[in-house]
UniProtKB/TrEMBL annotation:
Protein name stated in the entry: Esterase
Protein species of origin: Pseudoalteromonas fuliginea
Domain of life: Bacteria
InterPro entries linked: AB_hydrolase_fold, Esterase-like, Mycobacterial_A85_antigen
Pfam entry (one): Esterase
Length: 272
């Protein structure tokens, strides 16, 4: 266990169904924050969706800029099965960590080890038997694609929105102070999404991603999709109208939830 200490919010003072955690992590060599949205339930082993944020943001942006819980509530009212929404910070390196292992801190291990452990430790409806899915937007999409591919025994499905696909894509958003350490990552794939997906092709969880036609990352995403087709890597790539903005992600995160719900249905069918 890499978590040395956990602080858990008091539900008497938080917004309905929200929990905030602060964990002191040996992987980060410091503190990291996690927002959780979970509706009251007596069920056990409820599946988890990990939502990774983009540059500039932190654990709160998926809910307070993206309204992800509102999307979830609407889908639940239409019959979507239960999930616990887990929204961690990226570890707070400069303008964005890329969720990469760096020399000063392991931002990948923070997500795949500490965040998941903290959720299972504190949320009674979740357990080591809960299926875990990963998604994200922009830098978070990049993290979801890489982490989901590298850790198929942890993640049961991958979805990504408007994703950065390689380190050079970060130039659209961040300064050299942020990017220089990322280029020195200890990741053996050097932070390249395609190389990561290809290297883990045989164990890749079900994968989908999307991008808006007017997004600055549209050409990078279409190029990634073409290379995956050429290499016969199973995936779904959806193209929608829109730009690199919260309106786009608020609308299309529903596609992610529905995709993960479909995977959950297949899991339960296989277990019967």
């Amino acid at each position: 266990m890499a978590i040395h200490r956990l602080e858990v919010s008091n539900n008497s003072y938080t917004a309905d169904n929200f929990v905030t955690l602060t964990a002191y992590s040996s992987h980060l060599k410091g503190r990291g924050d996690i927002s959780i949205y979970q509706e009251a339930t007596s069920n056990k082993n409820v599946p988890i969706i990990v939502l990774l944020h983009g540059v500039y943001g932190s654990h709160w942006v998926w809910s307070q800029l993206g309204g992800v819980h509102k999307v979830y509530q609407q889908l639940r009212s239409s019959g979507l099965n239960e999930f616990v929404l887990v929204m961690p910070s990226d570890g707070a390196h400069a303008e964005g960590s890329g969720y990469l292992p760096l020399k000063n801190a392991d931002y990948e291990a923070w997500i795949v080890d500490d965040v998941i452990s903290a959720v299972i430790q504190t949320q009674p409806m979740c357990s080591s038997s809960s299926n875990i899915y990963i998604t994200g937007l922009s830098m978070g999409g990049y993290g979801a694609l890489c982490l989901g591919a590298k850790h198929p025994t942890i993640f049961s499905g991958i979805s990504a929105h408007s994703s950065i696909t390689e380190l050079d894509d970060f130039n659209h958003f961040v300064d050299e102070h942020t990017l220089k350490p990322l280029k020195k990552t200890t990741d053996k794939y050097k932070g390249d999404v395609f190389k990561t997906l290809i290297a883990n092709k045989k164990t890749l969880p079900p994968l989908r991603f999307d991008c808006g036609k007017d997004d600055v990352l549209f050409s990078a995403n279409t190029a990634l999709a073409k290379k995956l087709v050429d290499e016969n890597v199973p995936h779904t790539f959806d193209i929608f109208a829109g730009t690199h903005c919260w309106e786009y992600w608020h609308e299309h995160v529903a596609k992610t939830m529905i995709f993960f719900a479909q995977l959950e249905s297949k899991t339960h069918t296989q277990l019967k």
